[in-house]
Amino acid sequence: MAKFIFVTGGVVSGIGKGISAASIGRLLKDRGLSVFMQKFDPYINIDPGTMSPYQHGEVFVTKDGAETDLDLGHYERFIDEELTKRASITTGKVYSKVIEKERRGDYEGHTVQVIPHITDEIKNSVYKAAKESGADIVITEIGGTVGDIESLPFLEAIRQIHAENKKEDVLFVHTVLVPQIPGSDELKTKPTQHSFKELMSNGIKTNVIIVRSDGEITDSIKKKISLFCDVPVEAIVQSENVDLIYEVPLVFHQNGLDQYILRKLDLTKQPESNGDWGKMVERFKKSDKDVNIALVGKYVALHDAYLSVNQALLDAGWDMGANVHIKWINSEDITEENAEEFFKNVDGIIVPGGFGSRGLEGMMIASKYARDKKIPYFGICLGMQIALIEIARNALGFRDAHTTEVDAGTPYPIIDLMDSQKNLENLGGTMRLGNYPCVTEEGTKARQLYKEEKILERHRHRYEFNNKYKGEMRRAGVVFSGINEDLDLVEIIELKDHPYYVACQFHPEFKSRPNNPHPLFKGFVKASLENKKNK
Ligand code: GLN
Known about the structure:
Blueprint: E1 3-9, H1 17-30, E2 35-41, H2 53-56, E3 60-61, E4 67-68, H3 71-79, E5 88-90, H4 91-104, H5 114-133, E6 137-142, H6 152-164, E7 170-177, H7 190-201, E8 208-212, H8 219-229, E9 236-238, H9 248-254, H10 257-264, H11 276-285, E10 289-297, H12 307-319, E11 322-330, H13 339-343, E12 348-351, H14 360-373, E13 377-380, H15 382-394, E14 402-403, E15 413-417, E16 432-440, H16 445-450, E17 454-461, E18 463-465, H17 470-475, E19 478-484, E20 489-495, E21 501-504, H18 519-534
Parallel strand pairs: 1-6, 1-7, 2-5, 2-6, 7-8, 8-9, 10-11, 10-12, 12-13, 13-21, 14-15
Antiparallel strand pairs: 3-4, 15-18, 16-17, 16-19, 19-20, 20-21
Helix pairs in contact: 1-3, 1-9, 4-5, 5-6, 12-18, 14-15
The structure holds glutamine.
């Protein structure tokens, strides 16, 4: 039987609740427990797949093809586990399930209501995650802030889970902000007190309080919070501001949080951590080299739109003792004339995924610059598609070559819709999603980096390279180094006679881990470091 930890947020959003939840997951895993994590998102969309990156940031994709909240990326990177669609529950999913059942007549004449039908569906999603994962601990983060109207059914569901399980099997963690009054050192606990009361009015009494603050949460402040919120001082932990997000589990550990949680959950015989995570962070912090990477995209105004790419770059850099500095470049700003200005001081260029026509030409100027000047290039999904279009246009002279996503009437549809994508009516959840196998070709960079013939990578796209142009592309120096043999689709390409020009149709960033950075990211950062050295 699993035990359950629920993480709620108080006072304001954006204080790192997801990282706190993930850090608890890391700590418990280090204490010998298996952990599954999930997120409740109270919005009505079925998933974030149809939302603008500006609204939501990155859409993280699980191996089984669920389009999910970016916090799942934190979870996977911290606990180093591949999660599933059970890890992402939204109001939209819960309601559509209930309505589907209602239409089928499953409720046998009953009036269908928020309590018990919606709350039962939410509870089921927790119990099912526990059962399917077989994990010792299921950690569930409730999105939003306590007091939001839309999160009420979720809070009610976790209250019920607490009521129907043994007290040592359910634990609540509440994350809050203790603000500092501008112009003074004074820290205010009042919002925490209110947030605690708000939770209490939902029948939830938190066991642990995690505090974010710019000031130091001294013992006397802890005592005050303890008094008002009826939580022992030892269960109040400050999540100090750290240089690396991966330090958060260590901060929690230094404050005895894992010890406290294990005691509350009656898991007193767990072994001590082997300290590997701490050693990794220490090693990362000693990085003394620097490398500059240009990230070219159209959503760069919101860095969270590229969260996993960003993190995979940093992790790959630290793994080889280098701090990666990302230069965020809006592809719409790039022209033939100013490209030199943008790229002259960068050591590598990356073009990540994206949709639609805006900014595409600038991305192609970037990939061409990398191709001509022999600067390491890494294209991901759209970044592979535009690279091939650029090569078709400029190396093969195929004027107006394009992707049919943007130009349906192009004379050279280098990138085209898969047959399976034609005639689809719905936008949501219909892309090629999740894991697909790929075979790496012998003698290529891809094989050299992966050191494996058969790989599995996660996808999220509708368009593919058009195999009709394979022969011509080869003549332009393109090597097709990764192929999905079942579907006969190009998955990885690279260029001959270039230090590092690699692009893939899948999203390797989702599988990169701090303790196991992705081979393609490592290859790219290594090549960028070498490029810097040779300058
Ligand atoms: N827009 C492209 C497609 O749908 C690329 C998608 C992506 O980069 N994730 O195929």
